[in-house]
Amino acid sequence: MNLSHYTKEFSYNIRLAYPVILGMLGHTIVGIVDNVMVGRIGPTELAAVSLANSFVFVAMSLGIGFSTAITPMAAAADGKKDVEEGRTVFHHGLYLCTILGLILFGLILLFKPIMGLMGQPENVVELAKPFLDVVAFSLVPLIVFQGYKQFADGMSETKYSMWATILGNIVNVFLNYVLIYGIWFFPQLGMMGAAIGTLVSRFVMLGYMHYRMQKKERFQPFFEDFALNKIKRSVNISIIKLGAPSSMQMFFEVGLFTGAVWLSGCLGVANQAANQIALSLASFTFMFAMGLSVAATIRVGNQRGLEDYKKLRIVAFSIFLLAIILEIIFALFFVLFHKLLPGLFIDMGNLEDLAKNTEVVAIASELLLVAAVFQISDGIQVVMLGALRGLQDVKVPMYMTFVAYWVVGFPTSIYLGFFTELKATGIWLGLLAGLTTAALFLYIRFAGLTKRLILQKPKV
Q1: Whole-angstrom Cα distance, residue 398 to residue 394?
Q2: Is the pLDDT of residue 460 over 60?
Q3: For tag attachment on the chain, is the N or C end more exposed, with fewer CB atoms within 10 Å?
Q4: What are 138-185's pLDDT values in tens digits?
Q5: CA 295 to CA 14: how far, in whole Å?
Q6: DSSP assignment of 185-210
Q7: Cβ neighbours around 355 below 10 Å, total
Q8: Is residue 179 within 8 Å of residue 193, measured between CB atoms?
Q9: How far apart are CA 366 and CA 357, in angstroms?
Q10: Maximum Cα interatomic distance, the chain, rounded to a whole number of Å
Q11: Distances (CA, A) of 184 to 175, 177, 181, 195, 422
């Protein structure tokens, strides 16, 4: 099969993925805006935001990972044009996402005391605790929003979440600006202003998403007949069986990066602040691959519903190829501008913290060189995960990601970070090892599984 069979799918893949990418970027931009504005206050405050957000990101990974189960189920129902099945997925998905959002908020509050036992600087921990309380509560509207988003994505309506996220970001930037620095009649709240901005913006996103979907004629049948007494245990279990492994897949990866935040904190404030800068930039470019991953889930889910496995394989590999091209471009961008990008997050005019800020920028510049390389592995693994999720194959990939990130990646980060002179750079080389292992495992899994499906399908 020649290359044109794959490249001719690029146009549709991009049309489907770009609203998802913009929506995903919106989530990341919320964090980047917080980091840039808080970083202007000082490196200690930036480290505190990094520590607090590391807890939130772990919980968020569980919630968002779980909600991704809704997309392939909705896509399969859409492929069959089965409105009743789609309505069932929508109602049960929202019900479970609401419960999960509340549980995750409670778990963060329960585990908050662990902050003081992690070897982090004491002043950083004290600043992080109140920030965490507010941002943790923002998970409730965010996970419910994900329920709406994943269903709409599965129905190939990917623009609603994009506009919701853009609106949320406008609200977040405005509130950050006026509340962090005390502009106009607003109080000067410092880093707590960023926490409040995040909370309010996520409620705005949820409200907008509900309003737009309910007004859309295509979605109106799915809003009908919702009642708690119609929630069925059997359907909940079906979603949980698909959502729990998906949740753990994302948890294992985000947990690895969160572990890098904690390990960097043990090396000092400068290393932790530099880690947060590099992570923010890497997360931004990763959202492009995440958007393509969602496109893979939708299109593979549609073809699975139609049982056209040859087309399914072509679609998946076209998205896979597109992701590699994009990530190579981002890798080159990081290499070319690795010394300039960290300066966007730090106020080098602050003479009081000049020495510490200079150290932060130097470390972050080195980390971006490592990030340039793992962009490619990260893009491959997330697109392969999306394609496998479209096939509703989640259990084996869950085990694969655990081995890649926690048997290969994290031990490598510990060894290179603490037992060599590489320090923060060594921690990130561990991330590279884990992502590369995951990419290899998942590619082999998808290629083998789709080949078997094609061979097993009876010829008509």
Answers
A1: 6
A2: no
A3: C
A4: 999 999 999 999 999 888 787 888 889 889 888 988 888 888 877 888
A5: 8
A6: TS---THHHHHHHHHHHHHHHHHHHH
A7: 10
A8: yes
A9: 15
A10: 76
A11: 12, 10, 10, 19, 46
